[in-house]
Amino acid sequence: MKTLIEQCRDGKIPRPVRQIAAGEGVAAAAIAAAVARGTIVVPANRKRTVARLCGIGAPLRVKINANLGTSPDCEDDAAELSKLKIAVACGADTIMDLSVGKDLARTRSAVLKHSPVPVGTVPIYEAFIRAEKKYGDSAGMTPPEVLAVLEEQAEAGVDFFTIHCGVTRKNTALLRRHPRFLGMVSRGGALLARWMQRTGQENPFFSRFDDILRIARRYDIVLSLGDGMRPGSVLDSTDRPQLAELKLLGKLAAQAVRAGVQVMIEGPGHIPLHHIRRNIALQKKYCRGAPFYVLGPLVTDIAAGYDHIAAAIGSCVAGMYGADFLCFVTPAEHIRLPDEEDIKLGVIASKIAAHGADLARRNERAWEQDRRMSAARKVRDWPAQAACALDPEKFAAMRRQSRPQLDDVCTMCGKYCSMKMQGEDSERA
Ligand code: SF4
């Protein structure tokens, strides 16, 4: 069976493309052409029906991802499903299950069952956890076992995989020659680097890339080429190991697209604001316009407790310059596993960033949303403003809490409400 890329190359307009075109107000033929080129991806495993499909890549709306998942110390599927519900209700376009609890397959199966949006995973986590159980040590993991995990997760319906194929022996040696403040902060990247050091073998996501492409083709899964070398401190931003990995990811992405496999590229974590434009430009150049999935980026390291804001600033600018997919960051980043409120704040912050980027990218539907809000503000139509807000519940609750309760103005300016005064003056004129 042909993959989405191959069908689009044959000049067809597959059903998912038509659905996305209708939802975005973009011509289906233009989306199909971009899928064929590899500049738009549609995460949708053949084995699963995704109720809320999304396309990622220009000229579509900037999309956002929310992460959830258990940890070895907090393993509560019900809590993760509750986070899933909140993230989707607040507008997450995709979910990544990053579980590393001991029964992560059970958690994933529950997430896949309940998620109306595409679901991504980082399969190396399961491969390592299985090896720990089987051999008592993750160093026992073998490349065929890694492929078996990919196959099983694909069969279960996962829509996109993060694979850290750029953490090669060559690139880890480069990192040793160019030490950083924080070294390798990617969890998957660090696990792989340790395995490579202890076994003397090459990263299986790199050495067995052809096998991985065969699996991805069979299920039409999107590969998200992970940035194991991403900087975890602004002090390490845009250094040689990061760029060497990005170049390699670009080559592997081209190989994937040639093989009919959809691919996107993951991007840097901690990047100061003035590096963002260059980072996007380099990714687009090295990776021939493949969709860019940015993790944040966080524009400072000192916002702990407010990292959703640091990331929203970075991701809005990244989106304006061409990033296509924003991974949310919660206030709990670097501190603890996020709770439900953290998830909500992270998704809303990321939605603001994505929408700000959409305005900058002149997305007509985004402009229409702002036009509706401004019109409702002008006439102080509070229910209409709540309906236009990214968080209608918060708007309504704040309005209810306001004292004194004023009908046609709010307590910010009271009788000096500029909107009201202008309305009265124009009526008189
Ligand atoms: S009172 Fe002030 S803040 Fe409130 S609606 Fe009027 S102009 Fe806006």
In short:
The protein has 429 residues and is of the alpha/beta class. The chain has 19 helices and 8 strands.
Explain how this protein is built.
- By secondary structure, this protein is an alpha/beta fold.
- It has three domains: 1-37, no CATH class; 42-362, TIM Barrel; 365-428, no CATH class.
- It has helices spanning 4-9, 15-24, 28-37, 77-89, 104-114, 123-135, 143-156, 169-177, 187-199, 204-207, 209-219, 240-258, 273-286, 307-321, 340-360, 364-378, 382-388, 392-401, 418-428; strands at 63-68, 94-97, 119-121, 160-163, 222-225, 263-267, 292-295, 325-327.
- The protein has an eight-stranded parallel beta barrel, surrounded by six helices.
- Strand 2 (94-97), helix 5 and strand 3 form a beta-alpha-beta unit.
- It is globular, with a radius of gyration of 23 Å.
- The chain binds iron/sulfur cluster (SF4).
- Iron/sulfur cluster (SF4) is lined by residues 380, 409-410, 412-413, 417-419.
Query: What's the end-to-end separation, in Å?
Result: 69 Å
Shape: globular
What top-tier CATH class of the largest domain fits best? Alpha Beta
Query: Averaging pLDDT over every residue, what do you get?
Result: 96
Q: Helix/strand/pairing class, anyone?
A: alpha/beta
How would you spell out the order of helices and strands? HHHEHEHEHHEHHHHEHEHEHEHHHHH
CATH architecture of the largest domain: Alpha-Beta Barrel
Keywords, separated by commas or semicolons:
429 residues; 8-stranded parallel β-barrel; alpha/beta; TIM Barrel; 8% strand; globular; single chain; binds iron/sulfur cluster
